[in-house]
Structure formats: structure tokens, C-alpha cells
């Protein structure tokens, strides 16, 4: 099954040019929303720069929102994977803490000594 790093048609690793081209295609709306008002601000009226700034701020806010959602999903997947692994094994950390192994003041030096 092809991944994001392989070309769907050839199965070979994608080049940097292919990755950059795909990014531009997916973000053509945002790029146009920033570039067009910038050109208009430079040629027609400087107030178009405000529109370009608003579009850029909206784009940035959306990217931050998407990154946070992506990080939350990744963290949830990792937590589930760790929970699934931990459910099969006995939790030696909690058992050791309950028995007082390696705790300060018990007279044991622990692993670092």
C-alpha cells in the first residue's frame, strides 16, 4: 500500500519537486488569497495590503488549529497503544512503588549508584 512518501503510480519515493507541487495545488486558494491582494496593494491601492494581511492571519490561524488537532489525535493514538501494551503486562513501576523499592530513605541506593 502506498504511503505519503511513495508515488502512487510508480511506487518509487516521491521527489521534493512532487511534494512541493502537491502542497501548492492543495493550498492554491490560500496562496491566491494572499498574493492577489498583495499585488493589488503594490499597484492599485495600499489598503489592499490589509486584506492580504487578514487572509494571511486567517490562514495561519487555520494551520495552527489543524496542527493542534493533529497533535491531539497523535497523542490519543499513542496513549491507546501504550494502554493496550500496558494492559497485558503487569505494571512493575506501581508494584515497585508499593513495595518501597528504590524510594528515598529506604536505605537502597537504586540503579544509579
UniProtKB/TrEMBL annotation:
Residues 102-113 have a biased composition (Gly residues). This is Uncharacterized protein. The chain crosses the membrane at residues 39-61. The lineage of its organism: Bacteria, Bacillati, Actinomycetota, Actinomycetes, Pseudonocardiales. Keywords: Membrane, Transmembrane, Transmembrane helix. It comes from Prauserella muralis. Residues 84-113 are annotated as: Disordered.
Amino acid at each position: 500500500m502506498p504511503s505519503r512518501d511513495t508515488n502512487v503510480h510508480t511506487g518509487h519515493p516521491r521527489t521534493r519537486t512532487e511534494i512541493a507541487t502537491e502542497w501548492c495545488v492543495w493550498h492554491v486558494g490560500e496562496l491566491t488569497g494572499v498574493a492577489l491582494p498583495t499585488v493589488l496593494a503594490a499597484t492599485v491601492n495600499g489598503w489592499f495590503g490589509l486584506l492580504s494581511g487578514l487572509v494571511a492571519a486567517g490562514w495561519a490561524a487555520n494551520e495552527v488549529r489543524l496542527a493542534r488537532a493533529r497533535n491531539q489525535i497523535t497523542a490519543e493514538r499513542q496513549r491507546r497503544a501504550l494502554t493496550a501494551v500496558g494492559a497485558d503486562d503487569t505494571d512493575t513501576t506501581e508494584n515497585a512503588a508499593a513495595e518501597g523499592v528504590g524510594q528515598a530513605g529506604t536505605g537502597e541506593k537504586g540503579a544509579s549508584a
